[in-house]
Structures are given as structure tokens and as C-alpha cells.
User: Fold this.
Amino acid sequence: MDYFIKQTDTMSNIRHMSICEICGNKICTSRYPLFAEIKESNKIKFVHMECCSTESIKRNLLSYAENQINFYKDIIQLVNNTSLEEINNIEAKYGTYGEISQGIQIDRDRYVSALISELKGKI
Assistant:
């Protein structure tokens, strides 16, 4: 299972409509303005971050760090090999400015600090 934490402009709508598939309570009862998505074979579950196990949180932190490293490697590649093809590759992989500015915005500092806070409480 992969866990991904999302904070969106429509977070309040999702939080009020969704039920945590681990504990059965509404997502909006979480102490975090974030939720975890558990991606399984053909289903995505929305769960409270605090319902995730210690190992799941650690996997999530590692996955997040690896994704950030890959993103910055792609930026370095673009700087070293600036071309329309490289720009198109970046936009295809991460989205265009228009798509990102109109879509999901992730507050990365809040995401990481919430994961670490929850991990601290579980140790």
C-alpha cells in the first residue's frame, strides 16, 4: 500500500464527505487538515493520517523524499540540457503552470511536519 497525503483547495469538501476506511469516522474529525490516500489494486481509500501505522508513515516519508529528489534531478537535467523537449517532458510529468495553479496544491512543509508529528506520537 502506498500512502499519499494531499492538501487541496477542496479539502473541506472531501473531509466532510469522506469516511475513514480504517476507523469509520468522518475524515473531518482528524486533527490534521490533511488525509492519507491508501492506494490498493483498484481502489483508493481515504483515511485519517493518525490511523496510519508507524511503518506506513515511515514509508510515506521515504516515498516523499524520493519523489522530491527525482523532481530536483529533473530540474537539474532541464538546466543542463535546456530544450523544448526537456520542458515538454517536465510538463508532461509534473503538469503545466496552468494545470498546477488551478489544481491540487500541496503544502509540502505542512505535509512533512504532520507526518513527523504523527510518527513522534507513535514512537
Q: What stands out?
A: The chain has one domain: 2-122. Residues 2-122 form one domain. The longest helix spans residues 54-80. The chain has five helices and three strands.
